[in-house]
Amino acid sequence: MIWNSPRRRIASQGRREPLLTRFDRAAWVIPTSALVVIVVVGELGPSIRIVNWLLMVPLLAAGVCSPTITLMFGVFVVLLNRYIDVTHPDVSIRTEDFVLEITASLLALLIAVLRSQAHAYVRHLQSSAEATREVVLRPIPPDWGGVESAARYRAADVEARVGGDFYDVLATPFGARVVLGDVQGKGLPAVSTAGAVTGAFREAGYYEQDLDVVAQRMENGLRRHNLLRQAVGDEGERFATAVVLAFPDTEPNTVEVVNFGHDGPYVIGPRGVWQLPQQEGAPVGMAGLVGGTPAVRRLPLEPRETVLLVTDGVTEARNGAGEFFPLRSWLEGLAARRPEGVAPADLLGLLLDALSEHTHGHVTDDVALLAVRQRSLADLLPGGSHVA
Description:
Blueprint: H1 19-22, H2 29-44, H3 50-53, H4 56-64, H5 67-87, H6 95-136, E1 147-154, E2 165-172, E3 175-183, H7 187-207, H8 211-231, E4 240-248, E5 254-260, E6 266-269, E7 272-275, E8 297-300, E9 306-310, H9 312-315, H10 327-337, H11 344-359, E10 367-374, H12 377-380
Antiparallel strand pairs: 1-10, 2-3, 3-4, 4-5, 5-8, 6-7, 6-9, 9-10
């Protein structure tokens, strides 16, 4: 039995960053193009009154450009209308037209200022959310802890950039230790819960040699976190599915696994593709329902085998026809093309490309991926070669 988070799935497609915010430095091209079109049309058709049409230019600039650029367009349009009034007496620009030009330019400037302030505020919120998320998803060096590793995270909500997925790789006196998981829920409460789980893992994972003790410390850490949240008025009791791996220094070809109700990690290498056990334990924070934390499993692992851990943002990603991403069959195809094994960074790069192709870039859930591979003896020796 695999425990699935009861989070509410988003029915709508994942939102991409708006086009204008991605190319805001070149946004001046839009009102400039409109200005050129209006002037050209006015020259080709003398009967068309372009004086009032030019007022569209600063108003358009207000929606896409900075206040300074908007002001420049407004001043230019006013001067251009004065030039037309002088060089084309037949146009007969009236006083109310001139007042309308000034009013429209000032209104455009006001809109640009308000939009710029709102944009800066949203950017500030995004930066705060990013900083909050990096407390849980901190950068991981590729050779940290004596193992090769690579991690990627993609938020389904581009604007919020906050989710409940978490991962980490620890360098400990007992060898590398790895965790990846997914908190029930979304938003800042989920990030807070993920922080409690990863905080307990980082502390216990470094000081405790027995992985079973690490699992118990993670359970106790989240239980205390839930009690604290309830004391301040949060009635919900959160939990997290997770997988903890350990690569003991004393046994270089062994991996220890504790699975808190998460999908079993896949292993890809010269032996093909196989899956680590999917433990029937409860998620972190719910061990009291089943009488304790999951047992520690010990399994052999060859040096060229890479362990892939993912959240359900990968396994439950759908295409336009509603079909799930076929992770295992995709891994088997990759293993057939790469019988010598695949490096963690290469694996995640290829997987994200395949996932984007399957969903056409519309991810509806947060995606967290972590790939880990034990370093071979040749890698550890000075001048040792590395083969992906």
